[in-house]
Specification:
With 380 residues, the chain is an all-alpha fold. 79% of the residues lie in helices and 0% in strands.
């Protein structure tokens, strides 16, 4: 399962490593090229609950295998594109495939381990996304620099194909689950408490991803060679933040963990806004990545506490909110690109502070539910 989500994560973020070159080859502005990140995230957010419901009666191993094959084909389409609309179509197809992989991988993991190890298995599935930001995206950027961006996308296609083969040959093959209706997957959106939590997910991820696709513009002229270092630092921070967040949530609760994340995000983005020397930008990027990926575990904790019976469905909806936030942040980054990197980062920092305020309001509104569900009022 880890291989599957590494492939998905690499595909989702790899474009950020060669966006200016892609824009030049396609003869479109950089902000227009950035739409490829936005449409991927939008397609993922909209398709995930629908496709999860439609594929629920199919064995999860088969779903993952087919989806990874489609993901590989989509990257071949993108690599072969000579016009931007075709490239966008390939990115939409890739998003549809990716939106099936992660939920199915979670189902497969939860059905093949005992209750005692279920949390670890699910954490391993999510870890693939952060590992991809630490390894896959920088490697893709290096390939795009040494060769060209088409080779980087072909490498992602090969990675997806290998991951699909590994899943097909080695993963357990539990039976399919009960058929779900699309309305069941969207039911959390009708519950005010759940909706309020999902809004925070979208707001926090939007703040985190305003400058991400345009990370190359955060470096001073003459320091473009540091781009791989910045991406690697962000990815390492993402892994550390994801791992540390689970422990912090258990010890401090969701509210305090998210407070740390949003303060750290605001400070790191403010530091990047002043266009510091490259070595400082690398450190700030590591803190930015840490803060960005500290958000998911405490949000999942809140969702399970607020709706313990429908936990798996609400967790899936949280993934859609996450990608909706990424789409919103990237679209805002494209709008602000002409105003410069400083404006992008300051708006992103302001978004982090807005998430901090919303988190505080949310902690008070959810306190009765948290007390009932966990008997630990001080943690939420």
């Amino acid at each position: 399962m880890l291989a599957a989500t590494i492939a998905v994560g690499t595909d989702a973020w790899v474009v950020a490593g060669f966006l200016p070159t892609l824009a030049g080859d396609m003869a479109v502005p950089t902000a227009t090229a950035g739409l490829s990140v936005t449409v991927f995230a939008v397609a993922y957010a909209l398709a995930a609950p629908v496709l999860a419901a439609l594929t629920s009666p199919i064995r999860p191993r088969l779903v993952i295998t087919i989806a990874l094959a489609v993901l590989a084909a989509a990257n071949v389409v993108c690599a072969a594109s000579t016009v931007f609309p075709l490239f966008l179509a390939g990115r939409v197809l890739a998003a549809l495939a990716a939106s099936m992989v992660t939920p199915a991988a979670g189902v497969l993991a939860s059905r093949t381990v005992g209750e005692r190890h279920r949390g670890r298995a699910l954490a391993l599935v999510i870890a693939g996304l952060t590992v991809a930001t630490a390894v896959g995206v920088p490697v893709g950027s290096v390939l795009a620099t040494v060769t060209n961006w088409r080779v980087a996308l072909l490498a992602v296609a090969v990675l997806a194909g290998i991951a699909g083969l590994l899943i097909h040959r080695t993963a357990p093959n539990p039976p399919a689950g009960a058929r779900q209706r699309i309305a069941e997957r969207l039911a959390p959106l009708t519950q005010p408490r759940i909706l309020a939590i999902l809004v925070l997910t979208a707001l926090g991820m939007a703040a985190a991803y305003v400058p991400y696709a345009y990370v190359s513009t955060l470096l001073l002229p003459g320091e473009s060679g540091w781009l791989v270092g910045v991406l690697t630092a962000y990815g390492i921070g993402a892994v550390c933040g994801s791992l540390a967040s689970g422990h912090l949530t258990d010890r401090l609760g969701s509210n305090r963990t998210l407070t740390i994340a949003y303060v750290l995000m605001a400070l790191s983005l403010a530091a990047l806004a002043i266009r510091p020397p490259a070595i400082v930008a690398v450190v700030a990027a590591a803190l930015w990545g840490t803060a960005s990926w500290m958000q998911t575990p405490p949000q999942q904790h809140r969702l399970l506490a607020a709706a313990p019976v429908s936990g798996p469905v609400t967790i899936g909806t949280n993934a859609s909110a996450l990608y909706a936030g990424i789409a919103l942040g990237n679209a805002l980054g494209g709008i602000l690109l002409g105003a410069g990197a400083t404006s992008m980062c300051l708006v992103a920092a302001a978004g982090a502070l807005a998430a901090l305020i919303w988190n505080r309001v949310l902690s008070f509104s959810l306190r009765p539910a948290a007390v009932a569900a966990t008997s630990r009022p001080s943690h939420d």
